[in-house]
Specification:
Length: 376
């Protein structure tokens, strides 16, 4: 889903695989199709594909609903309809699912009525929207690029503090001194323990405990975006119990860098590890920052299991190399990065507000242009 843009060409290179590997577990798209992301938060973020941007028949995630315009329906007009408040507001109110993972049902799409003027008028409206929205789209693209740069800078800064570049050149060394600070080489498995034994989130006291899953954690910052109890999320499968202060690490799609510190005794998803650092070696917070670094992201990308949903298993995580300084240095790094993340989040917040205003303007223009026509 990361490669899918907002009804524009994919923002990463398209990979090629034998068709035999893609016949199950993927959605099929032809150049004449239009598809939109049906799952939160990608639906709310406006992710979708216009088939002509793919050039050839393609396969994509099953979290897309693929629509094939009938004769008399403009592909570009349909794409604008799917981005409009006329469609999105009704679709959001119809979403079903538990917790932070909800979807727009395909039955809703079959039943909804939307304005559809003549084909000639549809093309005229699409041309007008292409023209009016070009400047806003360019502004949003620039702002999103700046957002990406802020996040990349933060990752690089975290890496600089938790695993300095000099360490990468010390493959056969177990200890090195940098600027008067001694760093010791070890592996994650030697200095951590991972909780085991799942519990039933449907029974008390677990049902009333906060349940943290990967979708509750912000990428690359360690910030928890929202919190709900297991009962509120409708959780019905085994979860792990985590103690306040433990590190919570997302083992699925590990390159998204989703790690945080448990704010209280809570549950965590089975897609996460609840980890305790050996207090003789390092702190949970220092380890969290390592898991948020570009160094770790590169390692995770190489070592993740190559399946539809990449995963880092316990054995692979345990064998990951980690350099650890003394506790004085760890505490200093934690304070520096806490401040830097706070400053980055403040800049990101201002940028997102500006992007939001641009998107509101974008939606208003679409809505005004789509007011004409009948319904189908």
């Amino acid at each position: 889903m990361e490669a899918i843009n907002n009804f524009k060409a994919p923002n990463t290179a398209i990979s090629h695989e034998p068709v035999s590997k893609l016949l199950s577990g993927y959605s099929y798209l032809e150049p004449r199709d239009v598809a939109y992301a049906k799952v939160t938060p990608c639906f709310e973020n406006g992710k979708g594909i216009i088939g002509t941007d793919l050039q050839d028949p393609s396969f994509a995630t099953t979290e897309l609903t693929v629509l094939r315009p009938k004769p008399g329906i403009s592909q570009r007009y349909l794409a604008y309809l799917l981005q409009s408040p006329l469609f999105k507001n009704q679709a959001q109110s119809s979403m079903t699912g538990a917790g932070g993972l909800k979807r727009v049902s395909e039955q809703f799409v079959k039943d909804i009525k939307l304005p559809v003027p003549s084909f000639r008028e549809q093309e005229k409206i699409a041309d007008q929207l292409d023209h009016e929205l070009a400047e806003i789209e360019a502004s949003i693209a620039d702002q999103n690029q700046l957002l990406n740069l802020l996040h990349e800078h933060l990752k690089a800064s975290i890496s600089h503090h938790v695993q300095p570049a000099e360490l990468a050149e010390q493959a056969g060394v177990s200890e090195i001194t940098i600027d008067g600070i001694s760093w010791r080489r070890t592996t994650v498995g030697r200095v951590t323990t991972i909780n085991g034994g799942q519990v039933d989130p449907r029974v008390e006291p677990y049902a009333s405990m906060i349940l943290i899953a990967p979708n509750h954690i912000e990428t690359g910052t360690g910030r928890i975006l929202s919190s709900e109890t297991a009962k509120e999320q409708g959780a019905d499968s085994g979860k792990y119990v985590a103690r306040r202060g433990q590190l919570l690490f997302s083992k699925i799609r590990p390159t998204l860098l989703k790690s945080t510190i448990a704010p209280e005794n809570c549950l965590c998803s089975a897609d996460m590890y609840a980890i305790s650092a050996d207090e003789n070696w390092l702190t949970n917070k220092f380890l969290m920052y390592y898991f948020l670094s570009k160094n770790f992201q590169d390692t995770a990308d190489i070592n993740s299991e190559r399946v539809a949903m990449p995963k880092l298993n316990k054995e692979t995580l345990a064998s990951t190399t980690l350099w650890i300084p003394n506790f004085t240095k760890q505490n200093s790094v934690e304070e520096i990065l806490k401040k830097e993340i706070s400053n980055t989040l403040e800049s990101v917040s201002l940028l997102k507000k500006s992007i939001h205003l641009n998107k509101e303007k974008y939606n208003i223009i679409i809505k005004e242009n789509l007011k004409q026509g009948g319904s189908r």
